[in-house]
Amino acid sequence: MAHSNISSWLLIVQLFFLLLTQTYAKIPAIIVFGDSSVDPGNNNHIETIARSNFMPYGRDFAGGRATGRFSNGRITTDFISEAAGLKQTVPAYLDPAYNMSDFAVGVSFASAGTGYDNATADVLGVIPLWKEVEYYKEYQKKLRAYLGETKANEVLSEALYATSLGTNDFLENYYTMPQRRSQYTVDQYQTFLVGIAKNFITNLYNLGARKISLGGLPPMGCMPLERTRNVGNGNECMESYNVVAVNFNGKLSGLVEELNKELPGIQVVLSNPYDPMLQMIKKPSSYGFEVASMACCATGLFEMGYTCDRYNLFTCQDANKYIFWDAFHPTEKTDRIIADHVVKTALSKFLA
User: How far is 76 from 340, CA to CA, in rounded Å?
Assistant: First the structure.
């Protein structure tokens, strides 16, 4: 009788683990493309000033390590990976500390400072989007060598592809450098970028991707850096930039519909951070924040990267009270809230 009970118990345990495996089998890996919002440290390994591999960046990361994430801790794709039952962090492809056993379940090709437009990557000498795709092709070859052709192809087709791009195209390029403004109105430039986004997603599809999250723009006019510049309007949010973000997200939404109709078997969703982020900024106390207009690091008005350094006496003590970590990037707490939102909305069909 006892033997029968033990056998039954073992069978239940085996079934539980089988169900657990099946729950997460839909997403065997997360593969990331984008900019500083999802770069876990690729820029540490290229010649650029767009870096954050020094304190106080990473002070709330496990072990207090400055990994190259533009945050005090983890970023959105780390939380999405965790929500999918994968690892708690997504490693940078160019980081020699990791190998294919790590990359087989999660990898990021993202580069801080980049955008859809190659001209955006040129501003700070970072990895352009086409090069991120080249790294992905290289990764595919390594994955096939590591897992074997059949298993690798299964992982590549079932993986979640997360992309986050566009903010730099406007703030670092269009509104800062003269070239694109002389060629395009802001609406024309949005259409130009959406065309690049379409080619990019189609390229990923042709390489085997099927489950794709296209990241939308945040309310970029409310970043502390843009508020600081908006002196004439009492350092309020730069509404014209927010309007651009809303319009661009609308165009991306149209692109998602178009791609889902045109490409057989593809599932593209728009992961839009705009509304949850704006709600946090408008009602910070509802989310446990105290400061929405300034960042934690340094004076909180304009510093990021090398100007946000460990010796600045103005840096806040508790980043959890702030929506923004530096003048351009959210805190870990903000990223966790945004990740939770997109996991429950746009990504639920992939992770449920």
Answer: 9
pLDDT in tens, 117-148: 999 999 999 999 999 999 999 999 999 999 99
Distance from C-alpha of 347 to C-alpha of 159, rounded to nearest angstrom: 12
Q: How many CB atoms lie within 10 A of CB 58?
A: 24
Point out the catalytic residue in the list 36, 81, 164, 293.
36
d(CA 263, CA 200): 13
Burial of 27 (0-12, 13-18, 19+ CB in 10 A): buried
Ramachandran assignment for 218, one of left (phi > 0), alpha (psi -120 to 50 degrees), beta (any other)? beta
* pLDDT value, residue 22: 41
* Per-residue model confidence (pLDDT) at position 8: 52
Q: What's the pLDDT tens digit per position in 22-71? A: 444 479 999 999 999 999 999 999 999 999 999 999 999 999 999 999 99
Q: State the DSSP H helix or E strand holding residue 339, giving kind and residue range, or none if neither.
A: helix 332-344
Q: Is 341 a catalytic residue?
A: no
pLDDT above 80 (res 12)? no
pLDDT digits (tens, 9 = 90+) for 271-286: 999 999 999 999 999 9
Q: Residue type for 276, please? A: P
36 included as an active-site residue: yes
Regarding pTM above 0.85, the answer is yes
What is the per-residue pLDDT for 314?
92
Those residues whose C-beta lies under 8 Å from the C-beta of residue 325, and which sit 6 or more positions away, are 70, 71, 72, 295, 296, 297, 319, 331, 332, 334
Catalytically annotated residue among 81, 293, 329, 335: 329
pLDDT bracket for residue 220 (50, 70, 90): very high
Residues with Cβ within 8 Å of residue 236, at least 6 apart in sequence: 227, 230
Sign, CA torsion 52/221/233/235: negative
Of residues 39, 60, 169, 326, which has the active-site annotation? Answer: 326
Picking from 191, 145, 161, the residue whose alpha carbon sits closest to that of residue 268 is: 161
Q: Are 324 and 223 in contact (CB under 8 A)?
A: yes
Query: What are the residues facing 88 on neighbouring strands?
Result: none
Sheet with 211-215, strands from edge to edge, namely: 106-108, 30-34, 160-164, 211-215, 267-271
